[in-house]
Amino acid sequence: MCPKQSEVSRQREMLRKWGICVVIPTYNNGGTILRVVQEALAECDDVMVVNDGSTDSTAAILEGIKGITLVTLPQNRGKGAALKAGFLKALDMGFSYAITLDGDGQHDPAEISLFLKAHTDHPNTLIVGSRNPEKVNRSKGSDFANQFSNFWFWVQTGRRLKDTQTGYRLYPLRKLHGLRLLTSRYEAELELLVFASWHGTEIVEIPIDVYYPPQEERVSHFRPGMDFARISVLNTVLCGLAVVYGLPLRLFRWVMKYIRTGYALLFFLFFMFVVIKPAVWVLLKIRKGENRWLHRLMYRASRFVMLTHGIPGVRFSAEVSKGVTFDCPRVVVCNHQSHLDLLCQLIFTPHIVFLTNDWVWNNPSYGLLIRNAEYYPVRDGIEELLPKLRSLVDRGYSIAIYPEGTRSKDCRIGRFHQGAFWLAEQLGVDILPMCIYGTGKILKKKTYTLHKGPVRVEVGEPVSHSQLQAMGDTLEQARQMRRRYTQWYEDVKVRSEKGEKR
Predict the structure, then answer these.
(1) pLDDT digits over 99-127, tens only?
(2) Residue 219 burial (10 A CB sphere; 0-12, 13-18, 19+)
(3) Would strands 398-401 and 331-334 be described as parallel, antiparallel, or unpaired?
(4) Angstrom distance (rounded) from CA 166 to CA 128
(5) Which long-range contacts (CB under 8 A, 24 or more apart) does 391-395 make?
(6) Does pLDDT of 147 surpass 90?
(7) Do 197 and 240 meet the contact criterion of CB atoms below 8 Å apart?
(8) Which of 271, 275, 337, 447 has the highest CB neighbour count under 10 A?
(9) Looking at residue 457, what DSSP letter applies?
(10) In the chain, what is the straight-line distance between the N-terminal and C-terminal CA atoms, in Å?
(11) Burial code of 314-343, b = ≥16 C-beta within 10 A, e = fewer?
């Protein structure tokens, strides 16, 4: 298989994994629809065409195309009605997202790859393909309508977009609002953007190319007078709704974000300073010797927080590979996104200790627990810590290390350092892979407010000492494991955002 075929095959697989289909509304595009659909099928396995009551050869052409889902409206009802019919059909078929492009040939189906990449970087967002005005040969009426629409979108939502009239988009179907109330014609696309913005759906613009044939060859259903009037009426209604609905909704979301953050902070401070820390201080005075009770306490506290909604707005899920247990010591390797990562890992077993940075080691809130639980700061160097870590392993504890060394700024998998793999070699134990998704979005690096969203932790199958040696030296082990994690993380992201199991 050549590299290009392999890339397209991978793209089609990822579109299917994410539950992304292509929806093409069409009306009297007999001269272009065959090429558009065939090019879309070359990019995506799941293509749906909505025939909006065409009266030319479009219907006959579509009937002869294999591999598509065809939705036929008995009479022309407009682009908004066609999109609504396509979205409802896609939801009924189990799809989570839909990429829309027009049937007149102005959009290049090869750019579906751009939408997939943007979606992978920004899941559950509405992706808008923004046309470069310098490269677009639009009619004056269409150009004015777009600028007019852009202005009123800013008035109604407080957000600026370069191209609110583009039909090349990726919609998160389960986050569309007002779908059943959608108007029937061109103005529906503006309506979808406005309602999405009001309800907090992130909107991301990406640059796209567009082709318009010469004016004498162009098939356009845009009616400057009628459609401009309809857009004006819609904008009048939306401005009124913005005052009584959109603005209060935005304010409510803003207030709730700080309420969630305040609740989580008070929850943490109360249990840490009123319950846990005093109890630990007393027990440390009474009990001497090994502090296994402290590990059990931290294990139960972590499970209480993560599994009983101690962090509001977080949908937490965890999965352990079949047959994997935590009854033998290993070096636990995990990607690092947030301060919440440690809590996510502690839910599996009390028999685990972490190598931490100085900030965690000296933290005034939980530094007492960290130090007495025999967590160690990495500043001491793994070589210097080796005797202590060997003692922990001999007592049945696993050692958890973040091979990236620090939290990822953008949640992507960073470069892996060799320390974890050197330690596994010195201790003669297996590597236990863990992968976390979502904590870096819930509590972003260098931010102090909590966001809503999914958090998922997966525990993979152990990598044995002999398997590690077969990879080569510790540098090559780090490189190969990072490549594994990069792919694994993308798969975990899909399962997390879609709520799937492996």
Answers:
(1) 999 998 999 999 999 999 999 999 999 99
(2) middle
(3) parallel
(4) 7
(5) 392/329, 392/353, 393/329, 393/427, 393/429, 395/290
(6) no
(7) no
(8) 337
(9) E
(10) 28
(11) bebbbeeeeeeebeebbbbbbbbbbebbbb
Q: Which residues contact 78 (CB under 8 A, 6 or more apart)?
A: 52, 184, 185, 186, 188
Residue showing tokens 């207030």: 255
Amino acid at the residue 109: P
User: What's this model's pTM, rounded to 2 decimal places?
Assistant: 0.85
Task: Name residue 435's beta-bridge partners.
Answer: 458
* Distance in angstroms (rounded) separating the CA atoms of residues 159 and 197: 8
User: pLDDT digit string (tens) for 424-443?
Assistant: 999 999 999 999 999 999 98
List beta partners, residue 208: 131
Helical (H) or strand (E) element with 127: strand 126-131
Neighbouring residues of 9: CB distance < 8 A, sequence distance ≥ 6? 1
Query: Among all chains, which residue has been given the structure tokens 């396509």?
Result: 86
Label the pairing between strands 352-356 and 398-401: parallel
Which helix (H) or strand (E) segment is 481 a member of?
helix 474-498
CB-CB contact of 366 with 298 (8 Å): no
Tokens of 463: 């990598």
Quick one: 375 exposed, middle or buried, by C-beta within 10 A (0-12, 13-18, 19+)? buried
